[in-house]
Amino acid sequence: MIRRYLLDTNAVIYLVSGHLVFSLPDGQYSVSIITEIELLSFSGISTEEEQKIRDLLLLLDRVYVTDAVRDEAIRLRRKNRLKLPDAIIAASAMTHGAVLLTNDQAFSSIEGLVCESLQLSK
User: Fold this and answer.
1) Rg of the chain over CA atoms, in angstroms?
2) How do residues 100-110 score in pLDDT, each as one tens digit?
3) Distance CA 106, CA 49 (A)
4) pTM for this prediction
5) From CA 13, how far away is CA 118, in angstroms rounded?
6) What residue numbers bound the domain in which 91 lies?
7) DSSP per residue, 50-80
8) Does 55 fall in a domain?
9) CA–CA distances in Å: residue 112 to residues 1, 40, 70, 107
10) Overall domain count for the chain
């Protein structure tokens, strides 16, 4: 069975900047539409950085804010006091049965969310 992963914003940044110690594990990869917005809306992003991100995004599935994602994000915000973007990203992973690849500790305490952190080069 192919394992599903959802890349958090920081995971995509580490990946395109070459800061990962290991390659990503085999699996099916996606990003939340929120992650795409966050990545491409950084002020000061260079043309080269934007192109690397866009090239990677072409290879990934998108998870949109469906009714199921919306409802789970609402539940997560109420229970865990998450910021709205984090709640949508967590809900996206949970509703799609994906492991969230992230180094953001805010996600680690969310019951029912499976997270894995990435080892970074120094």
Assistant:
1) 14
2) 999 999 999 99
3) 26
4) 0.94
5) 12
6) 4-116
7) HHHHHHHHHTSEEE---HHHHHHHHHHHHHH
8) yes
9) 20, 29, 16, 10
10) 1
**CA 17 – CA 52 distance, rounded (Å):** 9
38-41 contacts: CB < 8 A, separation 24 or more? Answer: 38/9, 38/85, 39/9, 39/12, 39/13
AA identity, residue 61: D
Decide if 122 is inside a domain: no
Amino acid at position 90, single letter? A
Alpha carbon 5 to its chain centroid, in Å, reads 8
Q: In this predicted structure, what is the pLDDT of residue 17?
A: 92
- Contact between 104 and 10 under an 8 Å Cβ cutoff? The reply is yes
Helix (H, G, I), strand (E, B) or coil at 93: helix
Whether 30 and 64 have beta carbons less than 8 Å apart is answered as no
Nearest to residue 92, comparing CAs of 37, 20, 13, 24? 37
Band of the pLDDT at 19, cuts 50, 70, 90?
Answer: very high
pLDDT digits (tens, 9 = 90+) for 29-83: 999 999 999 999 999 899 999 999 999 999 999 999 999 999 999 999 999 999 9
